[in-house]
Amino acid sequence: MKTGEPGLITTTLEKALEWGRSNSIWPLTFGLACCAIEMMAVQASKVDISRFGSEIFRSSPRQSDLMIVAGTVTKKMAPRVKRLYDEMPYPKYVIAMGVCVIQGGPYVEGYSVVLGVDRVIPVDVYVPGCPPTPEALTYGIMTLQKKIRGENTR
Amino acid sequence: MEFQPGEEKGKDGRKIIKVKKEDLLSTLESLKKKGFNHLSLITGVDRKDYIEVVYHLHSFESNEYVVVKTVTYNSKVPSVTHLWKSADWDEREEYDLMGIEFEGHPDLRRLFLPQNWVGHPLRKDYNMKNVQYINMDEDGEDYATFDPGDGW
Amino acid sequence: MSEWVELNMGPQHPSTHGVLRLKIKVEGEIVREVEPVIGYLHRNAEKLCENTFFCDNLLYFDRMDYVGAPGMEVGYLEAAEKLLGVPPPERAIWIRTIMAELSRIASHLVWLGAYGLDLGMLTPFFYAFDLREKIMTIFVEASGSRLLTNYCSIGGVYQDFNEKIVQEIEDFINIAPSKIEELNSLFVKNDIFISRTKGIGYMSKEVAIDYGVTGPMLRASGVEYDVRKAEPYLAYSKVNFEIPVSSKGDNLARFLVRIEEMRQSVKIISQAIKKLPDGPFFNPKAKKSMMIRMRGEGEVYARTEASKGEFGVYIVGDGGVKPYRVRVRSPSLKNLSVLREIGKNVMIADLVAISGTTDLVFGEIDR
Amino acid sequence: MSLLSFTYGIFKVLGYDLATFVTFLIDSIVFLLVASVAVAGTIYFFRKYMARVQLRIGPNRVGKFGTLQLIADAFKLFGKESILPRLRDDLPYKVAPVLVFIGLLVAFSILPYGSLYYIGDIFISNSGVGIILLFAVLAIMPIGELLAGISSHNKYSLIGALRAVAKDISFEVPMMLSVLAIVVMASARTTNSLNISSVVTSELLPYGILEPLGLFVFFISMIARASYTPFDMGESESELVSGYSTEYTGMRFGLFYLGMFGTILLGSFIVSLFYLGGYNGPYSSDIGLIYLLIKAVIVVVISFTVWLAMPRIRIDKFVNFGWKYLLPISVINLVLAGFLTIYLGW
Amino acid sequence: MEVQEPKRRIPLVGTVEGVLTVFKHVLMKPVTVQYPEEKEYVPERFRFRIFLNLDDCVGCTLCEQVCPNKSIKMETVKRNNPRNKRMIYPDVNFGTCTVCRNCQEICPTDAIYLTHVFETSRTKNSFLYSPEELAMPEEEVKK
Q: How far does C118 lie from chain A, in Å, by closest CA?
């Protein structure tokens, strides 16, 4: 074994950590606009995100792993989004929920809307839709789980 | 079309009272005395060379509705915050987006946009191409920086 | 004289229902000054409306009060149809009435669940959303979208009610009253809930009128005023319902008024679904190919009773296919502005409870 | 026969000194593991129970029925970056979560858990002054909360810590008085009325029936100690973001999280020991542990249901409630206990 | 109609009732529909991703005009379709599409329509679908 190659224990530990991270994604209670209601619907009984171990919505960014940017990010809000992202501990993930967050959506021609939250913070998974249905967001979270585990994602 | 003081009936059947800017305060005061205690809405309409300011008044007792209209050529209108408290945020909003200065308003700051945003977006001559960045200072207050290049 | 500590609640804070920022000054636990800072969701709807066709503007109105989108569509169409001169046929009016009332229940249910969370009750949120999910099924069945329905369109509605939707609405009417009753009992029977709401956040009639407060908050302060009665629109003059009023003006009164409003809405829907007339659901003057060619001139102000209060739309047209100026009277903005008055000299916990009863939706406040 | 002598019996071949050492070592490790697993199980049970109450399913993707969920959470929390606030008070900030959790574990090790067939009585420490020790250890945890709140240099944390302390002061006295009533009652029947196991053994008729007021006061105090709704003013999520634990990340936060659920479990053990007859049961005394566990689970379920159904009380109302209602009630309870013991000889 | 405040009762009785009401729900069946495994019934009118029938499209650009946020742009595709002489077809940017279904409403030949497909999450911000990709099933659209 050459130096620098990960050993057996390291890889096993890495795998275990990935498994833990992917199955225990605690989102931040952070609703911006319309999509936040669908984010709440994901938490509610019909879809029940707790099946994936993600029902603990922490309201302090220090204790959360996932930031679901749910709703239009305006220019006034963008520095706060950045600050909240900075306050979260690594490893942290971001889901851009809804078209407003992806590329501006219906407000693409407005003067005070950030055209895509990925101009402010890095985004892991984009969930299009206006708003995405709770199932679509669940699919997005599953995509994120796959990404954390290092599987192929589109 | 020249602005003529007087009364007329709008398309939706509401009574519209058109007054000169100088008579605005006295008209509104007398209306308030008549029982119009609910100032519903203050609207500014940018007619390019002048700005129309529209007040929607309503009386809970008699269930009447009246619209008061005035025009201003220098985008200055007397404030009515001393008559109705609800005018406070409405006037701040119109100042923010339309650029109407309400004289005598106790705290005329922008309501939605950051304090040093350049221009008033609802004006017809506002240039939507100019991109302004917003940052936070140490106290967490926003300030805007003007950048004509590509932005967010 | 002790020192006041500045505390910044929001824009990300669990109790601010979106992006409200409250700059408060506290003396120990007691809030001495509240200054709401808004504009974090200012999405320039009024400006964008000026650059879009009359038919497309519905999009922006859907996204104002996003918890009860059809109610906003109704408000816009009341004004736009008067301006364009395309009144909807009778069937569309009744369908819109049903949708507006459903959206009122949906909005109040979201508020109820969120208010439970504000006070620390975890469970009612789930029961409220469970009931709301039934309304969402009706919405998606009718319009194809859960939240932002885009269902009504100029001159009528997008698609007709079919048998299945009518059946689901009837199912909803059957289960809703008992569920609302159960939700209500979870709250009002609880001694701690009563101690958190009764006598807290008192707003007098004069203050409410002065600040332009409307909707359930105004009615809880003892003013019996509802646009549905005062200036009937849609089919509200043809159905029986009562306006819940309370003279107490505290949190509990606002809570009870909203609960009673849900009951009345169920009553309205059950009457409307029986009276639903046959006929066209679309004004032929506003058919598909006319969508981008409708012109309007003049100015129209229409007000409707949305779930938060009096929702007014003022449209000025210059004869083009796009409106010249659109101005929205958002009820939540006025309801929030009174927080400066009633949020003073209470404890931090009470501030949360009071701002919960104002039922804020930021899409509508900031637009 | 006890757990210690059972283990000693296994290692007797090593000789007295070594066997004693190994016995204590092994028992401590086993106990630590069991306690941690029990606390984790409580969290898992809570999440499942909460889901069912709310018409949901709850965690079910990791392992059968989601049983490995807590392990996944633990892995994740271990792997998180640890952010330290720049203006913190270093030592208290780092000590606080440990204090909370250690206090909990020590408290667990003081309780007797009844007996099981071959193993015998299960306890780690059967101190003669167990009750005093138990409540002394329980009083360490609020110190941890206070330290966490003050050292975080965050306004929310500070207010949370102050609230937690105000809350603690207002229920400690009634709680101690209601425990004193237990001691008074037990003193009629046992010579060592400060030893927990002898108090429980003397409890042929559960003290909860003799002293319903005491049970009420003690149950409320236990809810307040564990700080969940309706008495979670210290970390009230909708008001103070996360209260005194706002600034904590990763495993440090995990310790607070474990501490909270551990206190619920501990509280239900104490309530069932002192007020519901503990490990005394109708049939054989060989399965005392089972009796105790059943009673504890019932108390845990009641606690969780209260948590899920109640709104949060306001801090000043709780302080009022503590001093104006709980204290008099516990004093009445104490007087009644003395009356029952001295004049009726129960 | 004046709303009635709840009557004053003996303390704690109502509270216990509320706790019991919550507890009662343990016995009820969960309403959860386990999404990836159990597919829920999708209403007929449910709309999400836009599809395009290349053979029906006549290139009238009505959808481009009516799109409120300019998600639809016309693009030239070399394709043998006698009805589409100008050989222009819409491409849709799902990064801004609000599924308002105005395009479906106005389309004279029903070539552009909205479907039930909603599993469109990506890990890259590339949602511009060319006309050919609009005609593909979602799984095959790879960027």
A: 13
CB contact under 8 A, C120 and D311: yes
Cα dihedral angle (E75, E81, E84, E88), rounded to 10 degrees? 0
Interface of C with D (CB under 8 A): 5, 7, 13-15, 26, 29, 116-123, 126-127, 130, 186, 190, 192-193, 195-196, 347-350, 352
Q: What percent of chain D has a predicted confidence (pLDDT) above 90? A: 0
Best to test chain A binding among C15, C46, C59, C63 (most A CBs inside 10 Å): C63
> DSSP label at D238?
H
Cα C209 versus chain centre, distance: 19
State the helix-helix crossing angle for A134-148 and A34-43, rounded to 10 degrees.
Answer: 70
| CATH 1.10.645.10, applies to C5-365 | yes
Q: Which domain holds residue E130?
A: 50-140
Helix, strand or coil for residue B86?
A: coil
Flag whether pLDDT at B152 surpasses 70. no
Regarding chains D and B, contact by 3 or more CB pairs under 8 A is answered as no
Q: How many domains does chain D have?
A: 1
Map tokens 């009805």 to a residue: E83
Assigned superfamily of B6-107: NADH:ubiquinone oxidoreductase Nqo5 subunit (3.30.460.80)
**In the predicted model, is pLDDT for residue B126 greater than 50?**
yes
What the block records as the tokens of A83 is 């600050």
Which residue from B37, B63, B86 is facing C337, i.e. has the nearest CB? B86
> What is the rounded CA–CA span in Å between residue D12 and residue D4?
12
Residues A108/A115, Cβ–Cβ less than 8 Å? yes
Can you name the residues that pair with D156 across neighbouring β-strands? none
**Residue D213: which domain range?**
73-344
- Nearest CB to E118: which of A51, A96, A133? A133
| Residues 6+ away with beta carbon under 8 Å from D74 | A20, D40, D254
Q: What is the pLDDT of residues C131-157, one digit of tens each?
A: 888 888 888 888 888 888 888 888 888
Q: In chain E, how many domains are there?
A: 1
D105 domain residue, yes or no: yes
Domain membership of residue D187 (yes or no) is yes
User: A113: which strand partners?
Assistant: A74
The closest of C310, C86, C87 to C208, measured between CA atoms, is C310
Digit-by-digit pLDDT tens for chain A (154 residues) are 455 566 777 778 888 888 888 888 888 888 888 888 888 888 888 888 888 888 778 888 888 888 888 888 888 888 888 888 888 888 889 988 888 888 888 888 888 888 888 888 888 888 888 888 888 888 888 888 888 888 777 6
Contact between D309 and E31 using a beta-carbon 8 Å cutoff: no
Residue B138's pLDDT is: 64
Q: Going by beta carbons, is chain E in contact with chain A, meaning 3 or more pairs sit under 8 Å apart?
A: yes
The C-alpha atoms of residue E80 and residue E78 are separated, in whole angstroms, by 7
Q: Do residues C339 and B91 make contact, with C-beta atoms less than 8 angstroms apart? A: no
pLDDT at A1: 47
Q: Please give the average per-residue pLDDT across D240-266, as a whole number.
A: 85
Instruction: Tell me the domain boundaries of chain B.
Output: 6-107, 113-152
- pLDDT score of A2: 54
What integer is the mean pLDDT of D45-61? 86
Do A112 and B113 lie within an 8 Å CB cutoff? yes
Residue E10 located in a structural domain: no
Mean pLDDT across the stretch C15-31? 83
Domains of chain A: 26-144 (3.40.50.12280)
pLDDT in tens, E39-94: 777 788 888 888 888 888 888 888 888 888 888 888 888 877 777 777 888 888 88
Sign (positive/negative) of CA torsion A44, A49, A53, A54?
negative
Domain ranges of chain C: 5-365
Q: Torsion over CA of C141, C147, C148 and C153, rounded to 10 degrees?
A: 30
Tally the residues of chain D. Answer: 346
